[in-house]
What we know:
Blueprint: E1 2-3, E2 8-10, H1 17-24, H2 27-30, H3 43-54, E3 62-67, E4 70-79, E5 87-94, H4 103-118, E6 124-130, H5 134-142, E7 146-157, E8 160-170, H6 171-176, E9 178-182, H7 188-198, H8 216-219, E10 232-238, E11 241-249, E12 267-272
Parallel strand pairs: 5-6
Antiparallel strand pairs: 1-2, 2-3, 3-4, 4-5, 6-8, 7-8, 9-10, 10-11, 11-12
Helix pairs in contact: 1-3
Amino acid sequence: MMHTGNFELREWQLSDAASLAENANNIHIWNNVRDYFPHPYSEEDGKQFIRMVSGKPWPATEMAIVINGKAVGGTGIVLKTGVERIGAEIGYWLGEKYWNRGIMTGAVKETVSYAFLHFPELRKIYATTFDFNIASQRVLQKAGFEREGILKQAAVKNGKVIDLHYYSMLKSQWLAKMYHRFFREDDFPLLEELLYEAIFQPEGAEPLPRNIIKEPEIDNYIRDFGKKRGDFCLFAELDGKTVGGAWLRILDSEIKGYGNIDSETPELAINVQEIRL
């Protein structure tokens, strides 16, 4: 699950079928999507779709856009095969009453980051929009996509032959938006969060209580960070949000680190927040 300020992006659940149908059953949405998108859109259509995507192997390629606990739209990528296997096409839609709030742009950004992180072979993500769908083109532009060209008379919608606008983002362009910064004194809450998430927790086990980081042998990794010889920390940020961090510390005091070697060799801790971009 990926959290942002005004929506969540997560895998589809069968309980989403009712809200999916409620938001997808709209002629204004159907006019801007591929014809395989049902119209009218019933709750049974929603259940069939969710069962289909839930049966695919992980990592998921379809996500629900969730607002106040309800699925109100979706994003997805179609992975290409053969000689085009380094590319994927992105698609998206959103319930009409949620338009013009920046939600769709944010969801596209999150999906792009998710795709590049979970499918490392990808080098390019692209989208095609109908020539009359100016709003969708603006979403892509705001999300950092570039228009490569116009495909003349490449599609037909509602019986009318139309052009397709082809937009893309290269992995190198996405990575170029990421930058690193050094630790600041007001970063202690962030460092605590990264420390907790860096603790190994076996899959399926009950999550460790968050106050475990106050245990002396764990708190030792960040207590008074920046004041000891050898302390060094970098954070990685993407689109203004921290997506990971790495820090070094020599733990040669009475309470030593789990990987202590000697008083000259620092320990390295790393956390990459793949699901909170």
